[in-house]
Specification:
The structure holds 2 protein chains of 2 kinds. By secondary structure, chain A is α+β, with helices and mostly antiparallel strands. Chain A folds into 4 domains: 123 residues, no CATH class; 63 residues, no CATH class; 64 residues, Arc Repressor Mutant, subunit A (Orthogonal Bundle); 63 residues, Orthogonal Bundle (Arc Repressor Mutant, subunit A). Chain A has 14 helices and 18 strands. A 4-stranded antiparallel beta sheet of chain A has the order 3-4-5-7, with no helix packed on it. A 3-stranded antiparallel beta sheet of chain A has the order 10-12-11. The longest helix of chain A has 18 residues. The model of chain A has no long low-confidence stretch (mean pLDDT 91). By secondary structure, chain B is mainly β. Chain B has a domain of 68 residues: Sandwich (Immunoglobulin-like), CATH 2.60.40. Chain B has no helices and 8 strands. In chain B, strands 1, 2, 6 and 7 form a 4-stranded mixed beta sheet that branches. Chain B is elongated and about 60 Å long. The N and C termini of chain B lie far apart (76 Å). Classes of the chains: A alpha+beta, B mainly beta. Chains A and B meet through helix 1, strand 1, strand 2, helix 2 and strand 3 of A and strand 1, strand 2, strand 3, strand 4 and strand 6 of B. Chain A: Keywords: DNA replication. Chain A: One of its GO terms (biological process) is DNA replication. Chain A: This is Sister chromatid cohesion protein DCC1. Chain A: InterPro entries: Dcc1.
């Protein structure tokens, strides 16, 4: 199009050129416009900066899973959003500010529309799907160097790269979760310790603390490695100290402040896994006697690990680990309500806390997935639908 | 698991494109593909209001800074048989879109023949 043609159109349209900026974009469809090769991805906050910094994003999913998009440290659900409008994407098209800022801008700008669409990919931040991580690592827990299992060729071992290709989560979320579950790298593979082996290691350390009369807050790494290094690999000694203690340096020496709550919790798990249910008061007695000298057991250390039944006579306690429950919200609630018909908020919170999305509260989850009622003056929650 | 990588081509800064949002559909005047055909003239008033003349219509719109920018992705031809562990698809981020011109008002028809009063 020429200037003359543009001006003629303006005249026909009865638009006054004096009220318009001098530059005009003549839009036409580019040669590949209908090919549909381009698509639009709507970017959540932060993702634009990631792309501009040259970082990439990855879409992950098994064929039967809903796809997710992962940045370096976040995971998003993906969906196609339809719009009734037509979206045209045009390279080199300028805004009025840009035209005013550049006095040399051409009179006629021939812009080619690169493509068009009436839908785009929409993202929503979601919880990373990490349950699979524990499941994979539990296929072959590490039982110690003396175990025969590790001698045989087994393919149930995973490197970081393997995990990235199997789990719908970002790399940082995966690495963080590995730390949370106390996984360790053995010969390049991520491993979870088999529980009894883990307790054996912990027992070595607590016995040593006792025999050396160390303070629970000042356990020296070096001495542990020296004294226990003949019993177990040094990396495993250090790993158990890192898992159950907080590392610090005092005057150049590395110490660990042992984590009372975590140790008491592990001892409880060891006791509870041997039977379906325990008499609560008997359990509490045995539990207190079983933990290291100087540590105090408390029932609130067992949130998300054990469930107390206050309605039975005598009161009982049984093992219920939140990590054994389903990952999907509705399935989780179904599972909890089939275990117990009515829950108080205090009892159910540890078993649904991990379901909360970025700014969601436990209360919001309960409103959505449960129905409340009063029982003996206490607010309780039950299922919205009949549980078979 | 399927892994599809979305990455920029790596050669310099990402291009900034514009989005134009129109109501309804765009169809070629004569049946045939749209490729190569003209859409119309885009003007701006001195106050910065976009004015689009498409066929026999004038559309008035507004410039909108997108709260959530878009990335324009172009699918790359995939490798015939990617090995396990390698991504099974690749999209290149061709451009970012941070601004759109939204034309929401009803198009005003351009009357080209004014009947003469008889």
């Amino acid at each position: 199009r020429s200037r003359a043609e543009v001006d003629a159109t303006l005249q026909t349209a009865k638009l006054n050129p004096a009220e318009l900026l001098p530059a005009v974009h003549c839009l036409s469809f580019g040669p590949q416009a209908s090919a549909g090769e381009c698509c639009l991805l709507q970017l959540e906050p932060g993702l634009c900066a990631e792309l501009e910094a040259g970082r990439s994003l990855v879409i992950r999913g098994e064929k039967d899973e809903q796809a997710v998009l992962c940045s370096k440290d976040k995971t998003y659900d993906m969906k196609i959003a339809d719009t009734s409008n037509m979206l045209l994407f045009i390279p080199g098209c300028k805004t009025p500010e840009q035209l005013n800022a550049d006095p040399a801008s051409c009179n006629i700008i021939h812009s080619q529309i690169a493509g068009f669409s009436n839908n785009y990919w929409e993202l929503r931040r979601c919880r990373p799907k990490l349950k699979k991580l524990r499941k994979l690592l539990m296929e072959d827990p590490y039982e110690g160097p003396s175990s025969q299992k590790d001698q045989t060729l087994t393919f149930s071992k995973y490197t970081t790269e393997d995990l990235l290709s199997l789990i719908q989560a970002s790399e940082e979320e995966i690495l963080h979760q590995l730390q949370v579950i106390d996984a360790c790298k053995i010969e390049g593979y991520w491993r979870i310790l088999e529980f009894n082996y883990e307790m054996k290691l912990l027992d070595h350390v607590t016995q040593l603390i006792d025999s050396e009369s160390w303070s629970l807050n000042k356990v020296p790494l070096h001495t542990c490695l020296e004294e226990l290094g003949s019993l177990e690999p040094r990396e495993m000694i250090e790993h158990i100290l890192l898992s159950y203690g907080r590392k610090y340096v005092d005057d150049g020496v590395v110490y660990f402040e042992m984590r009372e709550d975590k140790i008491c919790r592990a001892v409880a798990q060891m006791l509870l896994q041997n039977a379906v249910k325990f008499n609560l008061s008997e359990f509490q007695e045995v539990w207190q006697q079983s933990v290291p000298e100087g540590m105090t057991t408390r029932l609130d250390q067992l949130k998300g690990l054990a469930l107390v039944d206050k309605s039975s006579r005598p009161e009982t306690i049984s093992l219920l680990k939140v990590e054994d429950l389903p990952e999907d919200n509705q399935e989780r609630f179904n599972s909890l309500f089939s275990i117990r018909e009515k829950w108080t908020e205090v009892d159910i919170t540890p078993y649904i806390q991990d379901l909360c999305a970025e700014k969601q509260t436990v209360g919001a989850l309960l409103t959505k997935y449960a129905r409340s009622s009063m029982l003996n003056g206490v607010k309780v929650y039950n299922s919205r639908r009949p549980i078979s | 698991m399927v892994q599809i990588v979305i990455a920029s081509s790596g050669t310099g800064a990402l291009a900034q494109w514009m989005l134009v949002e129109l109501q309804g559909e765009v169809e070629p005047r004569q049946s045939g593909s749209l490729a190569g055909s003209l859409l119309g003239d885009l003007h701006y008033t001195c106050e910065g209001i976009p004015v689009l003349i498409v066929g026999h219509h004038i559309l008035y719109g507004k410039v909108v800074q997108l709260e959530k920018p878009f990335a324009v992705l172009v699918k790359q031809g995939g490798a015939p048989q990617p090995s396990p562990g390698e991504p099974q698809g690749h999209y290149t981020v061709t451009a970012l879109i941070k601004t759109k011109l939204l034309f929401k008002t009803r198009p005003k028809p351009i009357i080209t023949h004014v009947p003469k009063k008889v």
